[in-house]
């Protein structure tokens, strides 16, 4: 489920720092969050998860995962390839990140996505919800925690 607002990342605008803008109809864009990513010799590749909760940034031959809610770096996967990363994309469910380089495609689990989903559901539980929504949110949190336990997290 995509948010009602549109998020634009500063990389697309030629800005060296990741700026997140929120655009609502009739309003001028304004900065919501700024942050820094690890500088590298090559231009970074970006992939935004379908639910817009995780931003993956390529840094030479590694991938950094950022939580878009607070802009925090969640994790870094180093040495995905011996060369640079050519392209990245999340699958439609947002559970996997496909990373292309060295004439191969590697598939990474979006572990950060499970943590961001838990955080999103917990924030929603703090607001007034129907009993059915509360049950659905609690089930989602439980399923994410079970999946994270399988990864040893």
From TrEMBL:
A biological process from GO: endoplasmic reticulum unfolded protein response
GO cellular component, one term: endoplasmic reticulum
InterPro entries tied to this protein: WBSCR13 (IPR042410), WD40/YVTN_repeat-like_dom_sf (IPR015943)
PANTHER family, sorted: TRANSDUCIN BETA-LIKE PROTEIN 2
Protein name: Transducin beta-like protein 2
Lineage, broadest ranks: Eukaryota, Metazoa, Ecdysozoa, Arthropoda, Hexapoda
């Amino acid at each position: 489920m995509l948010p009602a607002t549109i998020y634009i990342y500063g990389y697309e605008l030629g800005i060296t720092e990741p700026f997140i803008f929120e655009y609502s109809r009739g309003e001028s864009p304004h900065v919501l969050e700024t942050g820094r990513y690890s500088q590298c010799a090559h231009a970074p590749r970006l992939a935004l998860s379908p639910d817009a909760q995780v931003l993956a940034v390529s840094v030479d031959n590694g991938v950094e995962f950022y939580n878009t809610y607070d802009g925090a770096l969640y994790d870094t996967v180093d040495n995905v390839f011996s060369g640079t990363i050519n392209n990245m994309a999340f699958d439609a469910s947002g559970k996997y990140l496909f990373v292309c380089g060295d004439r191969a495609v590697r598939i990474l689990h979006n572990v950060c996505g499970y943590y961001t989903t838990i955080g999103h559901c917990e924030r929603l539980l703090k607001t007034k919800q129907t009993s059915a929504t509360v049950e659905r949110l609690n089930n989602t949190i439980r399923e994410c925690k079970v999946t994270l336990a399988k990864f040893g997290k």
